[in-house]
C-alpha cells in the first residue's frame, strides 16, 4: 500500500506543468512501457484500450470528465475496456462492485453515480450498503445482491486480478493499449497527455495490421 500511496503522490506531482511531454516523439521507456509479453485482448481483431482504475482513487475520479468524452468518440475498430484494480481490502470490494454492475448491464447507467457517492463520503464497503445506494439509482436490490455473490462474478473478479498482474501495474489510473503498451498519467504528461499517447499507440497498432 505504501508503494500505491507513493505512486499516487508522484502522479499528483506530475499532473500539472508537464503536459508538453505528450508532444514529444513517442518513445518506449519514456511515455510508455512495452510489456515483455503481450496480454490477450478481449475482442480479437479490434485494438483494445484498457483503463485500470479504482472507485476510491481521486485521480481516477478526476480523470472521468476527460476520458469519458474520448471513449464516446472512439472509432469502431477500437474496443475500450475498464478493469478494476484489486490490491486487497476495499479495492477488491469496489472491484467486485464494478464487475457486478457490468454483469447486470447497468454499469454505464450508474458508473458516474457510484464514483460521486464514494468521493462524496459514502464508503460502499459492504454489498448491503451498495445495494441500498443502488436501489436509489434504479437497480434492483435483490438482483444486485444475488449477482454480487454469484459464481460468475467471482470468476470475473479472478480474471481481472490476473489481467492486472499480467499488465504489471503498481497504481491507478493506468492505461494499456492492445495488451502491449502500458502508461499512466505521470509518464504521459497528465490526463490529456495520456489520451494523446493512447491515440498514437492506437494509430501504431492500426498501421501494423
UniProtKB/TrEMBL annotation:
Any one GO MF annotation of this record: disulfide oxidoreductase activity
GO cellular component: periplasmic space
Lineage of the species this protein comes from: Bacteria, Pseudomonadati, Pseudomonadota, Gammaproteobacteria, Pseudomonadales
UniProt protein name: Thiol:disulfide interchange protein
Recorded family membership: Belongs to the thioredoxin family. DsbA subfamily.
SS bond list: 57-60
Primary location class: periplasm
Keywords: Disulfide bond, Periplasm, Redox-active center, Signal
Chain ranges of the Thioredoxin domain: 9-169
Pfam families, A to Z: DSBA (PF01323)
Subcellular location: Periplasm
Signal peptide: 1-22
Native source organism of the sequence: Pseudomonas piscis
Amino acid at each position: 500500500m505504501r508503494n500505491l500511496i507513493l505512486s499516487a503522490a508522484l502522479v499528483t506531482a506530475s499532473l500539472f506543468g508537464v503536459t508538453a511531454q505528450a508532444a514529444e516523439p513517442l518513445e518506449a521507456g519514456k511515455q510508455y512501457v512495452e510489456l515483455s509479453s503481450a496480454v490477450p485482448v478481449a475482442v480479437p481483431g479490434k485494438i483494445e484500450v484498457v483503463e485500470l482504475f479504482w472507485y476510491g482513487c481521486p485521480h481516477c475520479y478526476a480523470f472521468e470528465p476527460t476520458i469519458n468524452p474520448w471513449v464516446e468518440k472512439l472509432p469502431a475498430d477500437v474496443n475500450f475496456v475498464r478493469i478494476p484494480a484489486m490490491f486487497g481490502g476495499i479495492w477488491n470490494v469496489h472491484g467486485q462492485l464494478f464487475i457486478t454492475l457490468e454483469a447486470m448491464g447497468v454499469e454505464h447507467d450508474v458508473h458516474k453515480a457510484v464514483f460521486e457517492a464514494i468521493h462524496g463520503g459514502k464508503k460502499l464497503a459492504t454489498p448491503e450498503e451498495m445495494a441500498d445506494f443502488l436501489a436509489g439509482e434504479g437497480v434492483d436490490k435483490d438482483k444486485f445482491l444475488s449477482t454480487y455473490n454469484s459464481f460468475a462474478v467471482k470468476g470475473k473478479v479472478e480474471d481481472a486480478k490476473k489481467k492486472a498482474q499480467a499488465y504489471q501495474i503498481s497504481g491507478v489510473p493506468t492505461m494499456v493499449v492492445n495488451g502491449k503498451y502500458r502508461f499512466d498519467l505521470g509518464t504521459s504528461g497528465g490526463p490529456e497527455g495520456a489520451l494523446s499517447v493512447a491515440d498514437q499507440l492506437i494509430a501504431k497498432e492500426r498501421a501494423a495490421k
